[in-house]
Amino acid sequence: MDYLLDKYVFNYVPYEFSDETRKAITNKAMNVFAWADWFCKYQDVHQIYENHTSFLVCELVFFFLCLLTFVHAYRHGHRYMYVWLGILIHALNVENLCYWIPDLDNFWQAQGILTFFGMRAPLYIILGIYHTFDYIAYVFVSRLHLPWWAEGPAVGLGAVMLDMPYDIMGIKLLCPNIFDRMNWVPWNSYYFHASFACSFVWILKAARYFLVQEVYDWKKFGREFLCVFLAGVGAFWGGTIQFALLYHPAHDIFGIHSEYTTVTFLAFFALIVYIADRSNRRPEARAGNPYFFDELSLAVCIHYMFYMMLVLVADPANIVSVGLHQPIGPCNVTQKVQTPTGGMLYKSKYLCIDNYDEKYFDFHCLPANAKLRYEPGDEPLEWYAICGTPFENRAQYIFIIWTICILFGSIFYQWAARSGRTAIVYQFVYRNPRPVKSGWFSGRTQAIEEQAEDDDDVNYENLRYRGGSTAHTHRTPNPITTSSSSTTRIIRSSKKGN
């Protein structure tokens, strides 16, 4: 750092610095670089390709799927964009709280191209997984036109259906490294996605009910953002409450296995959705949508087809995952875990190299002289390499991945094509009076007549021109005007399409 500052900074300053000032500037620069290194860490793409090809491809696929969700939100505009931003806030909030709260710090992600917050949150998690799971589920469920109390559970189930193939293949291919499992996937992962996505939708619905109108008004953008901000921040705590209502009493007090609590929780969600759908008499819920194949339908197809192909060609035995993992340390150290029900659990704080039950990775690919064993007095080892293990039964993985993708893909097809169109959000549009045309061949009379024709369809209630004058109020207002002849009215915010 001293060399860089001397060569590129101090030499171009027109006066001399004292040694103490130089040292202070150097220390400040070191602190800035240390913070930047903690905030965002870059990994060489070529190294990831050599050691962890399947993960690199998975990361790029999620970037593309996130782009598709953004294109959909941008094309439909307004509240869909706010939902997209709310899910981003939700991702940042959940990921950081899970890393900063010691009781929740029990999983480590593979190092992506860009990894944030002390190398704990890869970019494909923040701008990828959450939008692929939650945004797609949110839009598809909106086409069912369910009541608010069923929309949240439906979105939670949709998120789980999109998450399941990623979790099963991701664990085996060392994408996340998590420490009751199904194919080494913690059952609570499905409980997590369902409860947090459900809480996001419920809080968003409640906030919009109290803070904004059903019709979108861009002048209330502060309230609109507050709604999605509350949903993004509060979904974590809403999901925690759902854990406390079922999982923690059953698991912590009565010792019921996580498998049963998760299956019961998801079944309860499915029952709510089934009851709401069977009693749904809204005609738009079953109107059908011949133009259902939009950006999100493409994203669902790519997502499922990718894992159907990945399970056929991936070779986990050739994977080397270098990065942050559970620290290797003394075997006899435990950590207290406070549960929401007031109970106290204990877990191993460090990975014991002599006694661990993680058959989806080992250390066979490391050199014989690699030092991984913890010695008393050493610092726990956090950054090291782990090696993938072969499929014990590839046919079993193929069977479950293909079954999941075909069944869940069929459900999403029913939601997309056999339900309604994407929910339309109407908006207020304000404009100045049309300027009078003038020119060699167009007179004032024609312009005034055209403006008068537009005025016949204008909804004047609660509208103001940008110039500040109040609009006329002697006409009887129409609650929602969809005429295409005027732009000073309530119109659909969704553009043509799905």
From TrEMBL:
Residue stretches spanning the membrane:
54-74, 81-102, 122-141, 148-166, 186-204, 225-247, 253-275, 296-314, 397-416
Give the span(s) annotated as Disordered. 467-498
A Pfam family cross-referenced in the UniProt record is DUF7802
Biased composition of type Low complexity is found at 480-491
Q: Which organism is it from?
A: Panagrolaimus superbus
Source domain of life is Eukaryota
Q: Which PANTHER family match?
A: AGAP005361-PA, SPIROCYCLASE, AVEC FAMILY
Q: What is this protein called?
A: DUF7802 domain-containing protein
Pinpoint the DUF7802 domain residues.
1-417
Tell me if Transmembrane helix is a UniProt keyword of this record.
yes
